[in-house]
Design goal:
single chain; alpha+beta; D-amino Acid Aminotransferase, Chain A, domain 1; D-amino Acid Aminotransferase, Chain A, domain 2; 2 domains; nine-stranded mixed β-sheet; 8 helices; globular; binds 4'-deoxy-4'-aminopyridoxal-5'-phosphate
């Protein structure tokens, strides 16, 4: 089946979808994105992603070309047209096409593109049973990581460094403290506390993070939002990551050293279960 994508108001076969070479997303990475997962044909936490999208656009003074209701309809239509049971929907909005200039153009029309990726069994990834291996790398990204821009080259380089080291991902480190994973938020569990970096410009404000911390607090778990070091991570009882595509995923090795027992931990497993149960119930 040819994939149908959405570009500026039209649903088209992917080979027919086109964006200008002058698009500022291409020339300046002047655009933002969101990724929403689909489980059982329904969208997980669509409202959370729509809210963060608006925040990212506001920070960059890009006009939102669609209302939240219209955006929901586009997501649903793409799920329907592509027969997605489990998968991901990528959305990108850029400032649009304009003659090349660092100054934001006054008259550009934002470009909006959405496409799907089918991921059968997305919530049953074998990594959830075995756990991930991570390496630590220096965080060399820019300083506005709270804006979800399409500028993903350093995370991409980080993934390549992880792959070269035989690991699944990299945790990035700034001033001795872990910021986040290349495409996920990072957590450790020590004693009864779940520890994850506080929100700020240094990390992306994960939509999954917000939900998982809410569920953890509702389950009377202790949450500490503060920076933690690489040494603390290596001495932790458990570690895990969260993201819209991985949900809650255990991390069992860091820089070749086992974390805790070297097996996925109970707190992580419980959070994963609560997250998936609750979010499936609330899916739209
Ligand atoms: N941090 C970074 C750098 C990311 O790229 C992502 C996922 N896009 C996340 C955290 C997790 O965010 P979310 O839970 O909203 O997917």
């Amino acid at each position: 089946m040819t994939r149908t994508v959405y570009v500026n108001g039209e649903y088209l076969p992917e080979a027919e979808a086109k964006v200008s070479i002058f698009d500022r997303g291409f020339l300046f990475a002047d655009g933002v994105y969101e990724v929403t997962s689909v489980l059982g044909g329904k969208l997980i936490d669509f409202a959370g992603h729509a809210k963060r999208l608006q925040r990212s656009l506001n920070e960059l003074e890009i006009a939102n070309p669609v209302t939240e209701d219209a955006l929901l309809e586009i997501h649903r239509e793409l799920v329907r047209l592509n027969g997605i049971e489990d998968g991901l929907i990528y959305l990108q909005i850029t400032r649009g096409a304009a003659d090349r200039d660092f100054v934001y153009p006054k008259d550009a029309t934002p470009t909006i593109v959405l496409f799907t990726q089918a991921k059968p069994g997305l919530a049953d990834s074998p990594l959830a049973k075995t756990g991930m291996k991570v390496i630590s790398i220096e965080d060399q990204r820019w300083g506005r990581r709270d804006i979800k821009t399409v500028q993903l080259l350093y995370p991409s380089m980080g993934k390549m460094m992880a792959k070269a080291a035989g690991a699944d991902d990299a945790w990035m480190v700034e001033d001795g403290h872990v910021t986040e994973g290349t495409s996920n938020n990072a957590y450790i569990v020590k004693g009864n506390a779940i520890i994850t970096r506080h929100l700020g410009n240094e990390i992306l404000h994960g939509i999954t993070r917000a939900a998982v911390l809410r569920f953890a607090r509702e389950a009377q778990m202790v949450v500490e939002e503060r920076p933690f070091t690489v040494d603390e991570a290596k001495a932790a009882d458990e570690a895990f990551i969260t993201s819209a595509s991985a949900f809650v995923m255990p991390v069992v090795v860091m820089d070749g050293q086992p974390i805790g027992t070297g097996q996925p931990g109970n707190v992580t497993a419980r959070l994963r279960e609560i997250y998936l149960d609750e979010m499936r119930k609330a899916a739209v």
